[in-house]
Amino acid sequence: KEEAQKILLENIDKELSGEISRRIKEAEDEIKLAADEKAKEILADAMLHGVTDYISEFTTSKVKLPDEEMKGRIIGKEGRNVRTFEQVTGVDVVMDDEIPDTLILSSFDPVRREIAKVALERLMEDGRIQPQRIEEIVEKTKEDINKLMRAAGEKLCHDTGVYNLPVELVDIIGRFKYRYSYGQNLILHTQEETQIGIALAKEIGADVNVVKLGCLLHDIGKVVTEGDEGTHVEKGVQLAKKFQLPEKVINCIAEHHEDKPFSAVESIIVYISDAISG
After folding, report:
1. What's the predicted TM-score (pTM) here?
2. Within its chain, how far is the Cα of 231 from the centroid?
3. Which of 137, 97, 104, 98 lies closest to 118 in space, CA to CA?
4. I want to staple 50 with a disulfide (CB 3.0 to 4.6 A). Which of 172, 195, 210, 217 is the partner?
């Protein structure tokens, strides 16, 4: 009797184990399917939050001249005017015979190029084109562009809900106004990415403040002009450390191109948001 009972219980256990395994497998498949669908919903909703009015706005390095005489005045006697202009702006002035009514301003630094463009337009309007006047107008233009960049930095911080950053850091963020990456203006890209990141962080319960700062500053190295060593990721990390930002935020910057393994979910969110916007 006892042996029969033991055999019976063993058979029941086997049947139950098989049934339990089958049900667990079904539940796992169902959860995976539901999780995939939920992930799609979260991403789609986050992208919807990130939709911004996109204006295709590319940095121009061309300045239209009113006539041939103006070109001669800009060049100056024995080229002294154009040499002074290039020296004080740090921008090369290129003259193309195929477009005689246009000057091309060449520089890898978009801020310098913008200062040169605005200063040259002001000089032509002013009419007094000579070395001393060139220096005065370029200096005044630098001040004006710096004010515009600070205002742009403050607005971007406000739009993304980031406050109380050091003024020096806000000024650097303002350089995004004149920086483009793959045809996308950095202010628009950063604004869009941060909105996506915030939406994702809220959905999955991540640290929203870390994601905000990580998204805002992920590309800061692209506008760091001090020193030429290192990638934009390395420059961004150095800058974040200089301003003693939280370690998780520094990691978001360091990991947003997978240069090192992700250390937290916030870094993954910054990476995903950057990819979606890009």
Report:
1. 0.70
2. 14
3. 137
4. 195
